[in-house]
Amino acid sequence: MLKPSKIVCVGRNYAAHAVELNNPIPAEPLLFIKPSSSLAALPEVGIPTRLGACHHELELAVQVGERLQRATPEQALKALCQVTLALDLTLREVQDKLKQQGQPWERAKAFDGACVLAPWLAIDDSAALQHAKFELYCDEQLRQQGDAQQMLMPIAELVAHISHVFTLEAGDVVLTGTPAGVGPLTVGQQLDLHLHIAGHDYHWHGQVQAND
Ligand code: ZN
């Protein structure tokens, strides 16, 4: 089992999500990092309850199987070994305040449990990644629907770009951005995550708990 030293995330990789939060579409990817201490595994979805709204951001997550430094998109795609879904948990009110003050986002996005991962799936066909579709249901209501083909920067280019900014170590994880439909989670909610990739359907369950 490869352990990530970091999780690299991209903000605003789907145009409709940038628009829903009144953010401009960036000219180059907006990157931030979650520490490995933020990792949690489904079905555990623990949210802080005293810091304002904690939003779900459902994202396609990929893991790199080898060290990547200043890679080409082809090298980056070849280096990807596993894929799954992630919830980039975000304290939205804290983040809004940090944005207003021009401060970094870690308080809103790097807390313990802020990166929830579904079980990893081996990538047999890397060409299928860009055709993945995924959904998040909260208490059986459809909240987010993603189609990797709608990414502003496709996965291979994104991972290659990241590897020019930070070295990606074997095991590091990249969260590829959230589609529209982000919203607040509440304690007790039942979550259903669906991933459709390479002709297969995967279904995972999560339960929202207080984590203060
Ligand atoms: Zn995100």
What coarse outline follows from CA principal-axis ratios? globular
* Residues in β-strands, percent: 35-45%
CATH architecture grouping: Alpha-Beta Complex
Bound molecules: zinc ion
| Radius of gyration, taken over Cα atoms and rounded to an integer in Å | 16 Å
Under CATH, the topology is which? Fumarylacetoacetate hydrolase, domain 2
What number is the mean pLDDT? 96
Q: How many domains, in number, for the residues?
A: 1
Question: In words, what does this structure look like?
Answer:
This protein has five helices and 16 strands. By secondary structure, the protein is of the alpha+beta class. The strands form three sheets. Strands 1, 2, 3, 6, 7, 9, 10 and 13 form an eight-stranded mixed beta sheet that branches. Strands 4-16-15-11-12 form a five-stranded mixed beta sheet, with no helix packed on it. Helix 2 packs across helix 5. The site of zinc ion has 6 residues, from loops.
